[in-house]
């Protein structure tokens, strides 16, 4: 097969969807069975096993002040539109058998509707950023199409499996890097004698980073570190100066430094109410960092019904209690779960699952076109 992964941020940013797509593309390419191409706005990275094509865009940070209206509901969608306008000049559908994205609306529309006449490759959509395009029939979401749907959690799979050819595949981790080991607080400028609470998250409303800081701001001696970037950066810094002066840090790090940052923390806090999957869940689980997160079907599927850090994240008191218990109890329970997490969420295994599903979708599309 000729497989094209298309996502604006590939090779440029290290958010969850981009990390997942690059890992899956690498895993499939390393099997040696297919020709894999990745299309993004970054630069080629030496040593990657797939082909890379660059397409420029206007970064979302420069589009934050644009007015919001359907379908331009956010700066990320405006960024996506600039990517598609650039890529359409070089897009050749005949060069692919299967295209893959998690970006909606403009990338999905391009891959499923261009050219207006003639052959188009099969298209697989991945619910990295949610399943609303596949599930909803309102507004611009009524124009969604795909030939196969990869659902990143069981909630998405259950509500889409009767509508689209679907499969349940989680995200994963590089188990050679995300594993237990010593921290590196001195390298990150973090204090040795104080508990560190880590949030790894985009600074956007849905991640609830401000609520997380408000909840733990009153815990004595705790230092908060947030690894992420986004439009709430100024509000986060202002709140930190008010609630936790001298006890908070905001940073962005290269992907290869993230395992050491996890290892330097005593607790990872992720107070969002919902994630499509949440790579951070699996990364922290594999390294052995205790996690405090919202208790709902997706986190129970990832962590298990007995995980002690799952709480009602709408309650600041519940978050504070869980963080304090995790600090006091240490890492024994979290460390006992690392081996199972490494096996379950290995990108190598997940890439094989993707490849099997893409092959199935391609064969079904080929038979349909031949009929």
What can you see in these coordinates?
This protein has 371 residues and is α/β, with parallel strands linked by helices. Helix content is 38%, strand content 15%. The chain has 15 helices and 13 strands. The chain has a 7-stranded parallel sheet with strand order 3-2-1-4-5-6-7, with helices on both faces. A 6-stranded parallel sheet has the order 10-9-8-11-12-13, sandwiched between helices. Helix 7 runs parallel beside helix 8 and helix 10 crosses helix 14. The protein is globular and about 65 Å long. 47% of the residues are buried. The model has no long low-confidence stretch (mean pLDDT 94).
Radius of gyration equals 21 Å
Cross-sheet strand order for the largest sheet: 3-2-1-4-5-6-7
**Termini gap:** 20 Å
Give the helix/strand class.
alpha/beta
Q: pLDDT average, as an integer?
A: 94
Pick out its properties.
371 residues; alpha/beta; 7-stranded parallel beta sheet; 6-stranded parallel beta sheet; 15 helices; 13 strands; 38% helix
Quick recap:
With 371 residues, this protein is an alpha/beta fold. Helices cover 38% and strands 15% of the residues.
Topology summary:
Blueprint: E1 2-6, H1 16-30, E2 35-40, E3 51-54, H2 75-87, E4 98-101, H3 106-113, E5 122-126, H4 132-135, E6 148-151, H5 154-160, E7 166-168, H6 185-188, E8 196-200, H7 209-216, E9 223-227, H8 233-243, E10 248-251, H9 258-263, E11 267-270, H10 279-287, E12 291-294, H11 297-303, E13 310-311, H12 316-329, H13 332-335, H14 338-344, H15 347-370
Parallel strand pairs: 1-2, 1-4, 2-3, 4-5, 5-6, 6-7, 8-9, 8-11, 9-10, 11-12, 12-13
Helix pairs in contact: 1-15, 7-8, 7-12, 10-14
């Amino acid at each position: 097969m000729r497989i094209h992964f298309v996502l604006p941020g590939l090779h440029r940013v290290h958010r969850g969807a981009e990390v997942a797509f690059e890992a899956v593309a690498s895993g499939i390419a390393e099997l040696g069975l297919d020709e894999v191409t990745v299309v993004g706005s970054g630069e080629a990275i030496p040593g990657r096993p797939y082909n890379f094509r660059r397409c420029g865009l206007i970064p979302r940070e420069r589009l934050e002040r644009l007015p919001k209206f359907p379908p331009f509901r956010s700066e990320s969608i405006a960024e996506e539109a600039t990517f598609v306008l650039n890529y359409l000049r070089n897009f050749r559908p005949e060069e692919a058998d299967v295209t893959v994205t998690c970006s909606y609306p403009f990338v999905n529309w391009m891959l499923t509707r261009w050219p207006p006449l003639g052959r188009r490759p099969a298209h697989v959509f991945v619910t990295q950023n949610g399943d609303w395009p596949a599930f909803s029939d309102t507004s611009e979401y009524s124009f969604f199409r795909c030939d196969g749907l990869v659902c990143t959690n069981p909630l998405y799979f259950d509500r889409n499996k009767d509508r689209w050819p679907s499969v349940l595949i989680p995200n994963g981790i590089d188990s050679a890097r995300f594993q237990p080991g010593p921290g590196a607080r001195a390298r990150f400028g973090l204090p040795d004698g104080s508990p560190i609470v880590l949030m790894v998250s985009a600074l956007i409303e849905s991640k609830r980073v401000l609520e997380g800081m408000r909840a733990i701001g009153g815990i004595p001696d705790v230092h908060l570190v947030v690894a992420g970037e986004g439009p709430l950066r100024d509000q986060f810094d202002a709140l930190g100066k008010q609630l936790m002066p001298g006890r908070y840090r905001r940073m962005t790090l290269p992907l290869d430094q993230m395992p050491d940052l996890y290892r330097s923390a005593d607790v990872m806090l992720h107070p969002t109410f919902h994630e499509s999957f949440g790579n951070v869940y699996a990364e922290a689980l594999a390294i052995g960092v205790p996690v405090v997160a919202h208790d709902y079907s997706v986190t129970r599927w990832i962590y298990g019904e007995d995980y002690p850090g799952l709480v009602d994240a709408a309650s600041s008191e519940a978050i504070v209690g869980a963080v304090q218990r995790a600090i006091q109890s240490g890492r024994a329970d979290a460390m006992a779960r690392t081996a199972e997490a490494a096996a379950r969420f290995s990108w190598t295994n997940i890439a094989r699952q993707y490849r099997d599903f893409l092959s199935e979708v391609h064969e079904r599309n080929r038979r349909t076109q031949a009929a």
